[in-house]
Amino acid sequence: MTESNHRIHLIEAEEAPDSIKPLYERADSAMVDGQIPKPTLFGNQVRALAHNPALLKSLIGVYETFSETQSIERKLAELGILIVSKVNACTYCIQHHTPLAHDSGLSTEQLQIIEEGTWQEHRDLWADDEWVVIQYAEQMTREPYKILYSLFVDLHKHFSDRQIVDMTMRFALCSAWNKFNDALGLDTESAFQHAFSEIMG
Fold this sequence. Notes:
Elements: H1 21-28, H2 43-49, H3 53-68, H4 74-87, H5 91-104, H6 108-116, H7 128-142, H8 149-156, H9 161-184, H10 190-200
Helix pairs in contact: 4-5, 4-7, 4-9, 5-10
């Protein structure tokens, strides 16, 4: 593994405490028969967070809770995560979540529009629930303090309070991951780079 762009030492499995070695196995099996498994851990995030095993396991627990108590369609969650990551210009998360979003049902055309950053110019590509997720993810990432009540009126046409809370937390955590990845200079693992390139052409 190359660490040339990383700003900290990334802890490899052989250096890690036994208590978190299974997490490396999950992260490093990123491609199984050409398909990205679900739920997916991202290897270089694991290697960075291995400096604090308790924090690593706690954060994974949050996402396992999301998975076990899922209230939002996976396609919509991945859509919002991609919008947040594009607004924040986080290549690491964009390259990871583009294949996951494609697997969950977003089209190649939709993903290419997100990659170009021109989703606002292509309303016709999005169903009504997708469009309101895009608006919410973008606005809460850019200027959450300026979100108008009218957007929540639109959100409530498609989602319950519980779903809106879950969505908000997913997107807020995504912003935190964007900053974590970029501040530490984490590189995208090769399997995800390949999967991203296959979709983008």
